[in-house]
Amino acid sequence: MNCPFCKADDTRVIDSRIADDGTAVRRRRQCSDCSRRFTTVEQMTLSILKTSGVVEPFSRTKVLAGVRKACQGRPVDEAALGLLAQRVEDNLRATGVSEIPSVEVGLAILAPLRELDEVAYLRFASVYRSFDTLEDFEAEIALLRAEGPPTAVEPPTRVGHTSGQ
User: 63-103, pLDDT tens digit by residue?
Assistant: First the structure.
């Protein structure tokens, strides 16, 4: 790390602290040449690999927008949506992978959304999984009924893949 004051390349870390809910490290440094101190922040980036091949930074705002559409007209408050988006981001970061396929983002949304509101889940799943017929909806509803009511369990550390899609 170069000193921002004298441009020397010999600096040492004086103190390190976790910041931003564990997604960043704040380091206090001192230059060996000019003895001035400065702060650096190291942040883990989470990138999304879209089906088109484009890579873009993860956006909690995009997750919120998609979930908000699915929850339109449902008795779900904004705080619950914020918690869901945070949970999705935490699950994705917990995988330890810095580049996540967009398909896995959608999968990471499904389970927490089902726990929040099954109708919103069905709406989101219908778009995400491209339901084309009434039978697609019926099959998903049958699956929901067979699984029983959603239970709040700790999410897996790795987002899984669905088969046959």
Answer: 999 999 999 999 999 999 999 999 999 899 888 888 999 98
The one-letter code for the residue type at 147 is E
Do residues 64 and 78 touch, judged by C-beta distance below 8 A? no
| pTM reported for the whole predicted model | 0.67
d(CA 102, CA 48): 6
Q: Which long-range contacts (CB under 8 A, 24 or more apart) does 130-133 make?
A: none
**Structure tokens of 32?**
């060996």
pLDDT band at 152 (very low <50, low <70, confident <90, very high): low
DSSP-assigned letters across all residues of the chain: ---TTT--S-EEEEEEEEEGGGTEEEEEEEETTT--EEEEEEE---EEE-TTS-EEE--HHHHHHHHHHHTTTSS--HHHHHHHHHHHHHHHHHT--SEEEHHHHHHHHHHHHHHH-HHHHHHHHHHHTT--SHHHHHHHHHHHHHH-S----PPPSS----S--
> Taking the CB of residue 125, how many other CB atoms lie within 10 A of it?
22
pLDDT at 157: 43
- Cβ-based neighbour number of residue 51 at 10 Å: 8
